[in-house]
Specification:
The protein is mainly α. The chain is 80% helix and 2% strand. It binds retinal (RET).
Amino acid sequence: MLNMETLSLEQYSFIANSFSFGLAVMASTTLFLWLMRSSVAPGYRMAVTITGLVTAIAAYHYLQIMLSWDKAVDVTTGQVVATGEPFNQAYRYVDWLLTVPLLLVELILVMKLSQQETISKSLKLGGAAALMIILGYPGEVADSAGTRTLFWVLSMIPFLYILYSLVVGLKDSISKQPAAVKGLIHTATYLVIVSWLFYPIVYLFPLIGITGGSAIVAVEVGYTVADIVAKAVFGLVIFTIAVRKSEAEASK
Ligand code: RET
């Protein structure tokens, strides 16, 4: 459980503001994606719908995270006083459990592989992603550095498998993509790799000498920034790929 009283009032508000920003980004990206869905060819609408679903699920969880953050302390005295109600970090992990496999499916769908390949890649990568999140949670809520480290190591195993599959396994598929989108699919794949690398690094902050309120700021703001890049920015790249591929197919 986080010790909320290690936060200064400024740190507490900074985190609250970053959650609020996260909610605004996720909700508006959802609206944009769903409203623009008909501007892509029917074959890509599923990918765009799922992209919007990811940001919608995230918007809901950011709202819950904000409410839980608000309830965990009382600031009416001008200081951060814990109310005794714990800040619920499970919302973040439940959000990831749902959205991370969907993000991978999105990337696979936009490549339009054979049905068999789509299903087998989605199951393998989606399953590994779920395992990675489940193994991370016990460490996130643990008070001891040893437990945090142990679950980091365990969660890194499926994580590295996913990265390896993306870099090596999808390279083949990328080379078969039309020229107009090869670059963008490349960008999407590397955006996944770079933005996802953020998470295990943010998780390590409390273990590498950042303490007290600063550790809470580093972790909460760090995950929020990573979520915005991995879901909203990535979603818009997927949408652009779908638009370009639709145009390329229409002019054939
Ligand atoms: C954890 C635990 C420590 C080790 C690793 C982790 C990886 C988390 C990742 C999360 C990605 C989340 C995304 C959310 C957006 O939708 C669980 C922090 C490897 C990669 C992309």
